[in-house]
Every structure is written in C-alpha cells, then in structure tokens.
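WP5 quarterly update. Target: ArsR/SmtB family transcription factor. Source organism: Streptomonospora arabica. Length: 111 aa.
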Amino acid sequence: MLTLATDVDALSRFGRALADPIRCRILLRLRQGPAHPADLADALDISRTRLSNHLACLRDCGLVVAVPQGRRVRYEIADPRLGHAIDDLRSAVLAVADDTTCPEADEKDCC
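Structure tokens (predicted):
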C-alpha cells in the first residue's frame, strides 16, 4: 500500500515536469509516439542542447525512458498510464476553465 508521502512525491514529480512549457510540449509530442531527440528538437523548434536538458529532467522525474536503438536513442512515455493521465488532465483542465491562464512561472531547465 502506498503511503501519503509516496503519493505526494509522485504528484510532485509530475507537477515539476508539467511546470515547464517545453516539457509539456515534449510530453504531448511523445504522447503521439516514440521519437529520437533530433526529430523532437526539429518538431519543437528548440536546440538539441536545450531539449537534452529537458529530456534529462523528464527521465529523472520518471516520466520518459530512453530506449537504445543501435547507436541511437529513442524516447517514449515511461508507462502508457502516464499518457492517459496527460490526456485526462488536459481534458479536465480545459473543461473546467478554458479561458483561464496562470501567471508565468520562473523558467528552469530541470526539476
């Protein structure tokens, strides 16, 4: 059985990952299917260095995994349930208040 501390830690890691717009874009793109870093950088129009920092954060938070493919690495959502959670959270937030915005948080490259 999970403890309250474990539950809070899990939600905090998810929240840290979602707190950055670039990490949100990465997760939404990976929700469509696995991708290589170069393809992600091109699709999201960000530098590979910046993408690498955000992917490291998402890996550290346990939300994405790196899957070796020969000399390349492919990234994907760590568990299909996370993809469903992202979809459910996005739908719920839009349903509750689609005309509400949050103030900009300090942009940080890692959790």
